[in-house]
Amino acid sequence: MADPVKLSLVIPLYNEEDNVAPLTAQVAEALKGFSYELIYIDDCSTDNTRAEILKLADESVHLIELKKNYGQSMALAAGIDYASGDFIVTLDGDMQNDPCGHSSNVIQNGS
After folding, report:
1. For residues 100 and 34, is the Cβ–Cβ distance under 8 A?
2. What is the pTM of this model?
3. Residues contacting 73, CB < 8 A, separation 6+
4. How are the residues of the chain apportioned to helix, strand and coil, as percentages rounded to the nearest 5?
5. CA 8 – CA 39 distance, rounded (Å)
6. N or C: which terminus of the chain has fewer CB atoms within 10 Å of its end residue's CB?
7. What element of type H or E holds 102?
8. Strand 35-42 to strand 61-65: parallel, antiparallel, or no bridges (unpaired)?
C-alpha cells in the first residue's frame, strides 16, 4: 500500500498574532484525516506572532523565524525550501484564503 500523500501548507506571517490560533484550527478541521505539515514563517513580526505559534505545541506546526523583515516573497521561498510534502499549498496569514477550498482542490488535483 502506498504512503499517504502529504501536504505542506506554507503560511508567511507578519504581525498576525490574532490569526494564528484560529487559522491553525481551521486548517486542522479542513485536513482531518490527512497527513500535513503547517509551516509558519514569521517575517520578523513586532507583535506576539512567534509566541502564539509556540503556544500551539503541535508537532504538525513548524516555525521558521526570519531575522529581519524580508517581505512575503522571501518568506514564501523560505517555507517552500523547508517543505517536505508531496504538494505545497500557500496561504496568507491574514485568513483571506479559506483553507478548506485550497486544500481540497490540491488533493483532488493531485490524486
Report:
1. no
2. 0.86
3. none
4. 35, 25, 40
5. 7
6. N
7. helix 99-110
8. parallel
